Amino acid sequence: MTCDQWDEDIFKRQCVALEKGIPGLVKGKLLQDVGSDYQAYRLGDADVLVENNEEVGGVFVRSDVDLKVYFKEPPSKGRDSLISNNKEGGNVR
Q1: Cα(88)–Cα(92) distance, integer angstroms
Q2: Is 8-92 a domain of CATH 3.10.450?
């Protein structure tokens, strides 16, 4: 789940992020129903669907393939980001 509430702006921004971040992603039809929007995509032989669903209450990305490989994880800003491994295998701060 991308967002835990129905949100038109987040839905649109999620679509733009996928379109910019995934090479070869082909945009399909935008389907609309009362309280729901669905943007379809194809990535090779795989289906990708971004859903903005008011009844369920959320923005979802459903995909036949793992899309995380196309997006870099932000660096951790927590306490763990201050820890690195030393040569002996222990942790140093």
Answers
A1: 10
A2: yes
